[in-house]
Amino acid sequence: MRKTIVRLLPELCTTAVILLMVAASDALHEREILFPEIAALATGYLLAPRRTWRVSSGRMLLFIAAGALTGLAIVVLVPLPLWQQFVLAFAVSQLLYIFSGTTLAPMISAIVLPVVLQTRSLIYPVSAAVLTTLIVLLRLALERVRLRPQEPFTPSPAPRVSIKDPSLPTGRGALTDALLRILLIALVSYPVIRLGRILVLAPPLLVAFTEFTNPLAGARKKPAKTVLFLTLCGTEGALIRLILHETLGVPLPAAAAAATVLFLLLVRSFHLYLPPAGAAVLLAFLIPSQQLASYPLQILTGSSILMGLAVLIFRKASVKTC
């Protein structure tokens, strides 16, 4: 029994963090405490046998906190229409991502989420920082008991702008890829936002899209399975909130805990540690209740479009030059 509990510590830690977050949000009546990307961070940093991203704990905390503050600043300080704020947030997130020296794609969601929800409270970045700190501390604890390996971190070099240097490797540069992603999201998001279906480009899907555009990403080798998994996770989050909380009156923390447990079972069944899928589950607990019915279809539509664009357009690995 004791060995089983020890073996399940990553799953127990993930569930406990999410339960604590939702309980705090529910008790204090502050929806800004809900940070869906914490499920993604837990998936990639606690659940996955090896660290999903090239990142250190310090940089994870720095860029998630900085990203949350940046997204909040765009909402509060940049008085633009929603589409322009959305594109600006995604553009800033892409530049921060490629110059961070990491592959921590969840920072993209940290920046874009407050724009999608039009968040204006400082509680959001504080919550993101506190919850990320908790994930980092739990990772250290799992390393101490040897449930997760201690992995060295070497920052990736920042992309450089060069002028036809024959000594440089061929292929698109990281900056070029980032600009191409920004252009594609700008084009897709305009009709999506005009139609009032912004969740087709939900922040977790933007994270997934950025990861999909890496031709070496494992998710690209099984695109149908990846899209199905993202859709299933979004669907189970929406259904559990709709049935347990909205219909039966089960407290929101208990419903979120049930959704987390089901997500963990799906991870084991699919053998797929896809961080954006965890965020898609929790985002269902943050959106307005009237959007729950259409949420699964929006996740299916968005993930299919973005996976398709990634596979069709991003066929060569980028290099750290441009």
Keywords:
322 residues; mainly alpha; 13 helices; globular
Short description:
This protein is mainly alpha-helical.
Explained architecture:
With 322 residues, this protein is mostly helical. The protein contains 13 helices and no strands. It is globular, with a radius of gyration of 19 Å. The model is unreliable at 162-171 (pLDDT under 50).
Shape: globular
Instruction: Provide the structure class.
Output: mainly alpha
The rounded distance between the terminal residues' Cα atoms is 55 Å
Spell the H/E element sequence.
HHHHHHHHHHHHH
SS field, number of helical segments: 13
The helical percent reads 55-70%
Number of strands: 0
- Stretches where pLDDT is under 50 for at least 5 consecutive residues are 162-171
Q: What composes the largest sheet?
A: none
The value of Rg in angstroms is 19 Å
Mean pLDDT: 91
* Estimated share of beta-strand residues: under 5%
Strand and helix map with partners:
Blueprint lengths: L1 H6 L1 H20 L8 H11 L9 H21 L4 H18 L6 H12 L5 H22 L29 H21 L8 H10 L10 H25 L4 H19 L4 H9 L11 H19 L9
Helix pairs in contact: 2-3, 2-7, 2-11, 3-7, 3-12, 4-5, 4-6, 4-7, 5-6, 5-8, 6-9, 9-12, 9-13, 10-11, 10-12, 10-13, 11-12
